[in-house]
Amino acid sequence: MKVEIYSDIACPWCHVGKRRFEQALAAFPGAGDVEVVYRPFQLDPHAPEEPLPHREVLAAKYGPQSVAMDDHITRLGADEGLTFDFDTVVENNSLLAHRLLRFVLERYGREAQARLKGRLLEAHFGEGLDIGDREHLTDAAVTVGLDRDPVAAFLDGGDLHDEVLDEIEEARQRGVTAVPTFVFEGQWAVQGGQEPATFLKILQQVAAETEAGAGAAEAGTEAGSGSGEACADGACAV
């Protein structure tokens, strides 16, 4: 079974969704046959390429409700063992980080990509990592066991820029408008950071459908919310 996870490092729900999906996968008997690949998506492709304090950015977009939004996801994250320290979060354009994740997928494979994805989310939301800073990204890659020199050399160049933008555009054409979005076997799409029990049920259903040789279905088995330009329960939407 192939699972493609469209997400953005700048999205707090992607951090929660990754943890919950991994919990479900750990309880799924067929986990060894599941291939997980992280795909790029940008909630704000026009974000400036400069570090800005998260609190200021969110307040400019949503006003006073931004504090409640941060408090809500902080509490949910704590329930999953995740740390959200929004006073230290630095916002930046996420394209460079997505390019790095694509590079790691191609050079080191899916497991290395997943480790780096987790580290970037953890450090961005809990340790003030700047996802647009080459040194920060290189250090994050080294932390999860990757080689510093090839990572640093890649980040100093322009490789995979167009390829990642094409992937993001392809996601939009496939109907992805909020993240995280989980696409199972290229057919069934589930939106939002669902509860582990929900993810487990979906994995079981998709496995059963695949084993039965079911025909192609429309991608659109959606769950969760995400309408509007905000991070509502379950997902962040453009």
Automatic annotation (TrEMBL):
Domain of life: Bacteria
Protein name as catalogued: DsbA family oxidoreductase
InterPro entries to which the protein is assigned, alphabetical: DSBA-like_thioredoxin_dom, Thioredoxin-like_sf
Pfam families, alphabetized: DSBA
Residues in DSBA-like thioredoxin domain copies: 3-204
Organism annotation: Streptomyces klenkii
Gene Ontology molecular function terms on file: oxidoreductase activity
